[in-house]
């Protein structure tokens, strides 16, 4: 079972998850393993209970995704399927976008992308970017921890410790 790691920065969240994908197209049937990173919007919730009560956190709409994937054929470290999905709409990723900069320096590329979250929000058609400015600043301050998490999860996938069970739609069986 994949482990979802969530970083919350005010009204923005970043999720980091180990993934194992099997292409449903029998002609390709690629088996990909790696790390999925998403920039998401946090859905504000009303305060509940006392000042000491735990508060509800809803990490909802995905607006940007990067997949640090490698095929079994390419092997760990091949970086042969690393791509991203700019400007996601309605949580749907759209087509894969490949860039040399991403495969040449995956963590440097990730840091560069997440350092400018307002541009990623704009690409996704999010309105009122000024409302996200304080959260974007907080994300930039915590970026090192996010990138370190992605680095560690990718190392766990490459070692065979993570991404062992294929992603399946619907509730777990």
What is the alpha-carbon Rg in Å? 17 Å
Let me know the number of strands: 5
**What's the order of the H and E elements?**
EEEEEHHHHH
Helix content: 25-40%
The biggest beta sheet is recorded as:
5 strands, antiparallel
Q: Please work out how many helical segments DSSP would assign.
A: 5
Q: Which residue ranges are poorly predicted, with pLDDT under 50 across at least 5 consecutive positions? A: none
The helix-and-strand class reads: alpha+beta
Strand arrangement across the biggest beta sheet: 1-2-3-4-5
The chain-level mean pLDDT equals: 92
**Which of globular, elongated, flat, extended, rod-shaped describes the shape?**
globular
What is the distance, rounded to the nearest whole angstrom, between the alpha carbons of the first and last residues?
11 Å
> What share of the residues does DSSP label as strand, in percent?
25-35%
